[in-house]
């Protein structure tokens, strides 16, 4: 850790040439999404004869991760939404050159004293605020959908897609992940994919920014039930906003082991909040397709995590845990959506 | 093995959660140990049923393949399904049972895709049997700790 602290201090000195006595300490790795190594640290420095201190976050690429993503897109998404109705932490520097810290990374501001854990959200004092948290959670998701990607400056950063092509691009991608990474056959998800291709959804009402992993566990909340930051934009892309809504409703995020989505509220209530905030409609046939898509995407992620662990690319236990704990639940979610769960 | 493996793993998992994690400082390492404890708990649940559920599923798939073969119009697939229906589990190591299960489930995907394109009553019966078996397969794999 001392070597990484020294390298960080050296890098930040380069980015803040006017600062003096730069020091990095209290570096500690934290859980922070599945695709990057995440650390918190304290930065202290002298500026105009005054000592200053900031709590920062380092997000560094590992050799292989649960999700293959582009850090430039993640960084751009944070930048684009900072200061808007979608709360996100401020990001400071993006670095592609691996010579500084051993692999590419970016640095942002830590939002301290907050919680993200899906298991903690079920406990007091958070449990008393589930309705309030849910209202914000799906309103913010609606706000992401309502934002114009062009005005956010993200059209040139994220790959464009036509409204009628959103579903096919995503389904092709995740079926490809299953084709390349599955270690055991997946008859349920393969059947879901065949059904989805025979019954494509209507074109997207609009092309918007899709967060890509919007769920309980990926936002920061406080003890009064206020959401302060949406995290983990590593799978952000342009697409059908119903994709995010479907993902947020995925059964594998029913952390309370009941029907409440995200461990918070009923599915229908979440959809109503989202519709009001986004100004869009979640037509039953369309949201059904995207919920089923969420099971394909989920299984793609769990399959590729198992593959990464077994091939030795990454030995983080989360890769095994997500595979062992979620694959069968994901299959059951697909069966339920296809009316085949007995 | 005595003490029983599932009991040992369950106890070790609880030890990690109740005694070791509180003694660890940085939250990242607490999280890692918590995940290892959960993996031990999953293995403890899976240990006793691991061979049984694979043998049961392999036999059910073979029985289904026997019934389904006449409904298959495609010669290559019919031959594949017919051949697999005649197989049996002779090696009861988990890896061997798993390999047989993978061969059967891969063929099940092909059979399912095939009967979906057929309009006959026999095809519908096979399809219904496949869905029934797929639902049962998730019951066999279900974990007590699963969200769904």
Task: Explain the overall architecture.
The complex is a heterodimer of chains A (342) and B (148). In chain A, helix 8 (284-310) packs antiparallel against helix 9 (317-337). In chain A, a hairpin with a 6-residue loop joins strand 1 (20-30) and strand 2. Chain A is α+β, with helices and mostly antiparallel strands and 342 residues long. Chain A contains nine helices and nine strands. Chain A starts with a helix and ends in a 5-residue tail after the last helix. A five-stranded antiparallel beta sheet of chain A has the order 1-2-3-5-4, sandwiched between helices. With 148 residues, chain B is mostly helical. The radius of gyration of chain B is 21 Å and the shape is elongated. The model of chain B has no long low-confidence stretch (mean pLDDT 95). Helix content of chain B is 77%, strand content 0%. The longest helix of chain B is centred in the C-terminal third of the chain and has 23 residues, at 94-116. Chain B contains six helices and no strands. Chain B has helices at residues 5-23, 27-47, 50-68, 75-85, 94-116, 121-141. Chain A binds chain B through residues 28-31, 184-188, 190-191, 194, 251-255, 257, 317-318, 320-321, 324-325, 328-329, 331-333, 335-336, 340-342, and chain B through 26-28, 31-32, 35-36, 38-39, 42, 98, 101-102, 105-106, 108-109, 112-113, 116, 130-132, 134-138, 141-143, 145-148.
Share of helix of chain B, binned:
over 70%
Strand order of the largest sheet of chain A: 1-2-3-5-4
Query: So how many helices of chain A?
Result: 9
User: Helical stretch count of chain B?
Assistant: 6
For the CA atoms, what is the radius of gyration of chain A? 20 Å
Shape call of chain A = globular
How would you state the average pLDDT of chain A, rounded? 95
Q: Helices and strands of chain B, in N-to-C order? A: HHHHHH
Number of strands of chain B: 0
Radius of gyration of chain B: 21 Å
What structural category do the secondary elements of chain B indicate? Answer: mainly alpha
Beta percentage of chain A is 15-25%
Q: Greatest interface and its residue counts? A: A-B, 34 and 35 residues
């Amino acid at each position: 850790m001392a070597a990484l602290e020294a390298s960080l201090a050296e890098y930040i000195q380069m980015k803040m040439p006017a600062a003096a006595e730069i020091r990095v300490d209290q570096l500690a790795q934290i859980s922070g999404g599945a695709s990057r190594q995440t650390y918190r640290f304290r930065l202290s420095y002298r500026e105009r004869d005054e000592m200053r201190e900031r709590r920062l976050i380092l997000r560094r690429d590992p050799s292989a991760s649960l999700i293959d993503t582009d850090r430039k897109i993640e960084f751009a998404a944070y930048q684009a939404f900072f200061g808007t109705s979608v709360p996100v932490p401020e990001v400071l520097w993006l670095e592609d050159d691996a010579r500084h810290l051993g692999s590419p990374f970016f640095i942002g501001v830590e939002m301290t004293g907050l919680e993200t854990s899906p298991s903690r959200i079920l406990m007091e004092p958070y449990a008393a605020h589930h309705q309030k948290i849910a209202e914000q959670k799906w309103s913010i998701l609606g706000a992401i959908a309502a934002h114009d990607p062009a005005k956010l400056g993200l059209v040139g950063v994220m790959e464009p897609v036509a409204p009628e092509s959103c579903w096919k691009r995503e389904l092709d991608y995740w079926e490809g992940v299953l084709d390349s990474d599955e270690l055991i056959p997946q008859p349920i998800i393969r059947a879901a994919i065949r059904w989805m291709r025979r019954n494509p959804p209507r074109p997207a009402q609009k092309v918007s920014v899709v967060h890509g992993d919007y769920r309980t566990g990926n936002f920061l909340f406080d003890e009064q039930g206020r959401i302060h930051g949406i995290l983990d934009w590593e799978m952000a892309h342009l697409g059908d906003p119903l994709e995010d809504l479907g993902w947020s409703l995925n059964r594998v995020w029913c952390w309370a082991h009941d029907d409440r989505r995200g461990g918070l509220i009923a599915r229908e209530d979440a959809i109503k909040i989202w519709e009001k905030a986004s100004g869009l409609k979640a037509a039953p046939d369309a949201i059904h397709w995207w919920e089923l898509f969420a099971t394909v995407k989920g299984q793609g992620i769990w399959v590729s995590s198992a593959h990464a662990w077994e091939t030795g690319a990454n030995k983080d236990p989360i890769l095994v845990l997500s595979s062992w704990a979620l694959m069968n639940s994901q299959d059951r979610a697909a069966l339920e959506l296809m009316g085949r769960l007995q | 093995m005595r003490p029983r493996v599932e009991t040992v793993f369950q106890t070790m998992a609880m030890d990690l959660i109740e005694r070791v994690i509180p003694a660890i400082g940085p939250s990242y390492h607490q999280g890692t140990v918590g995940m290892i404890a959960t993996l031990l708990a999953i293995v403890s649940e899976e240990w006793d049923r691991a061979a049984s559920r694979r043998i049961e599923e392999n036999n059910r798939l073979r029985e289904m393949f026997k019934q389904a073969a006449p409904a298959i119009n495609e010669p290559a697939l019919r031959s594949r399904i017919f051949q697999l229906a005649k197989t049996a589990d002779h090696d009861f190591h988990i890896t061997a049972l798993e390999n047989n299960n993978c061969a059967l489930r891969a063929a099940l995907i092909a059979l399912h895709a095939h009967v979906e394109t057929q309009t006959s009553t026999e095809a519908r019966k096979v399809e219904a049997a496949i869905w029934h078996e797929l639902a049962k397969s998730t019951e066999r794999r279900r974990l007590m700790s699963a969200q769904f």
